[in-house]
Every structure is written in structure tokens, then in C-alpha cells.
């Protein structure tokens, strides 16, 4: 019986004040979600829950949870967004417009 080929991947998770990088040896065919779950990072970060609603990336590109990894890939576990980026841009544009109008009046 031949042994299944394995590969090395990294799984990373970061908070503003700390990060962790876990190196794993996983079987060929391992998915991004499976690697994230095997990383043990849920035990290291209390707020982290890895599951079907997780957002994962490989080298900065968002990927499907069932994305099959390649040797050397770095899986990134993304934190949930605190604010909708579209809303933040809209609010910033409204503030800039109000400033311009105020400056034109003054």
C-alpha cells in the first residue's frame, strides 16, 4: 500500500495586536477549510470560529472553502468586517462634500 503524498501549507490568522502562523503537513487534496480547521488556531484565539461561514484566502485572494491547496500555499483566515466598506466610502464622500460646501460658503 503506497502512502498518500503530502504537502506543506501555512495557515495564518491575525488580530491588530497579534498574529499566528501555523505550518502543517497535510495530504494532497486538502481544502482551504480543512487546513484552517486542522491548524488549531481556534484554540489559540477565543473569538475565532472556523466553519461554513468562514472567509478564507490564499496569498491575499479570497477562495472558496473547498479550494484544493497546492504545496506551499498560505491560507489566510479573514476576520469578519466590522463595517460595510461601501457604507464607509459613502459616509466619507458625504463628509468630504459637506466640507467642500462649507469652504465654498465661507
General form? elongated
CATH topology description: Ubiquitin-like (UB roll)
How many E strands?
Answer: 5
Radius of gyration: 20 Å
CATH superfamily: Beta-grasp domain
Instruction: Record the strand order, biggest sheet.
Output: 2-1-5-3-4
Distance between termini? 83 Å
CATH class descriptor: Alpha Beta
User: What CATH architecture would you give?
Assistant: Roll
* Protein structure class: alpha+beta
Largest sheet properties:
5 strands, mixed
How many separate domains?
A: 1
The helix tally amounts to 3
Portion in beta strands: 25-35%
Descriptive account of the structure:
This protein is of the alpha+beta class and 106 residues long. It has one domain (6-81): Beta-grasp domain (Ubiquitin-like (UB roll)). The chain contains three helices and five strands; from the N terminus they run ββααβββα. The chain has helices spanning 32-38, 41-44, 85-105; strands spanning 6-15, 18-27, 55-58, 61-63, 74-78. The chain has a five-stranded mixed β-sheet, with helices on one face. β3 (55-58) and β4 (61-63) form a beta hairpin. The longest helix is centred in the last third of the chain and has 21 residues, at 85-105. The protein starts with 5 loop residues before the first strand and ends with a helix. The mean pLDDT is 90.
Task: Offer a few descriptive terms.
106 residues, alpha+beta, Ubiquitin-like (UB roll), five-stranded mixed β-sheet, 30% helix, elongated
Amino acid at each position: 500500500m503506497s502512502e498518500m503524498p503530502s504537502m506543506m501549507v501555512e495557515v495564518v490568522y491575525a488580530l491588530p495586536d497579534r498574529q499566528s502562523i501555523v505550518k502543517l503537513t497535510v495530504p494532497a487534496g486538502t481544502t482551504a477549510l480543512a487546513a484552517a480547521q486542522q491548524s488549531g488556531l481556534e484554540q489559540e484565539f477565543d473569538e475565532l470560529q472556523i466553519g461554513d461561514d468562514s472567509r478564507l484566502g490564499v496569498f491575499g485572494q479570497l477562495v472558496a472553502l473547498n479550494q484544493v491547496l497546492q504545496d506551499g500555499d498560505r491560507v489566510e483566515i479573514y476576520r469578519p468586517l466590522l463595517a460595510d466598506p461601501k457604507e464607509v466610502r459613502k459616509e466619507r464622500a458625504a463628509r468630504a462634500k459637506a466640507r467642500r460646501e462649507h469652504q465654498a460658503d465661507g
